[in-house]
Design a protein that fits this description.
The longest helix is centred in the middle third of the chain and has 16 residues. The chain starts with a helix and ends in a 50-residue tail after the last helix. Helix 2 packs antiparallel against helix 5 and helix 7 packs across helix 10. Helix content is 41%, strand content 0%. It has ten helices and no strands.
Length: 264
């Protein structure tokens, strides 16, 4: 079967996925599957095969889309990927787009989750991601160091043991959307400590800290070389990514009219 036929077959399976695979299972089932996957020995080679279903949206490189619709998953902590896949499958995290792709019929079981997570985690990252407008980076840096670095790491490297994601190299718009979903409770598998913590952020503080985070780049050894394309998918037809317009300049604050002088 050719690559295009394989993708068509995958999409057909997604559309016809049996309802029994989409039944809600809950956080307990997700936790059991995460624990099982974490203790398996992953196969990078099999992970490459499993990842074919992911290329439909994430493309072979696993890089972020400029509009922030898709995150950069390349280079992410394997434990984080395992947890998110298990949570989406068990409906402990709402993601209607990904839900069919995580069904056992398409993704497989805990072994396949471990395999594809290991494959994605070793993909080189892109440093060509969008950033915020850069107006209050000093405030953003201070907030990050005071509020975020304890969990996400000094350089946004995350924590493998506690399934805390690496947040280097993410697009500004994606960061904003996830921040808002975590705060509102829409991302139901978010850490409860973080939910409570960010609810007190003002809009100014939110945009400042996420602007700063969008500028945290992955270390050089994790970044793909210029022009790199994933050689594991040589026949993948890559459509050009839409480019994002530059951030508009901050409008000048209107001047308040001077008060008229009193006539004596």
């Amino acid at each position: 079967m050719g690559f295009k036929q394989g993708i068509k077959s995958i999409l057909f399976s997604v559309l016809s996925v049996n309802a029994c695979y989409l039944s809600a299972q809950g956080p307990e089932e997700a936790a059991r599957e995460v624990e099982k996957a974490l203790h398996l020995t992953p196969s990078i080679e099999n992970g490459k095969k499993v990842y074919m279903i992911c290329t439909v949206c994430h493309r072979p490189e696993g890089w972020a889309s400029p509009d922030g619709m898709y995150p950069q998953i390349a280079g992410q902590q394997a434990s984080v990927l395992i947890k998110q896949l298990a949570d989406i499958r068990a409906r402990n995290r709402d993601n209607p787009t990904m839900l069919p792709f995580t069904s056992p019929r398409l993704l497989g079981g805990a072994q396949e989750i471990a395999d594809v997570a290991a494959y994605i985690s070793q993909l080189p990252m892109s440093s060509n991601t969008t950033v915020g407008p850069g107006y209050e980076l000093e405030l953003g840096e201070r907030l990050y160091k005071e509020e975020c670095a304890e969990c996400h790491g000094k350089e946004g490297e995350g924590d493998k043991k506690d399934h805390i994601p690496l947040i280097q190299g993410q697009n500004y718009k994606y960061l904003i959307r996830q921040f808002d979903w975590i705060r509102s409770g829409k991302r139901r598998n978010a850490d409860s400590k973080m939910v409570k913590q960010i609810q007190r952020f003002s809009p100014r503080e939110e945009f400042a800290v996420l602007d700063y985070v969008s500028r945290i780049k992955p270390p050089e050894q994790k970044v793909a070389k210029p022009g790199w394309l994933n050689p594991d998918f040589p026949n993948y037809a890559r459509m050009p990514m839409p480019s994002m317009p530059a951030m508009p300049p901050m409008p000048a604050m209107p001047q308040m009219p001077s008060m008229p002088q009193m006539v004596r």
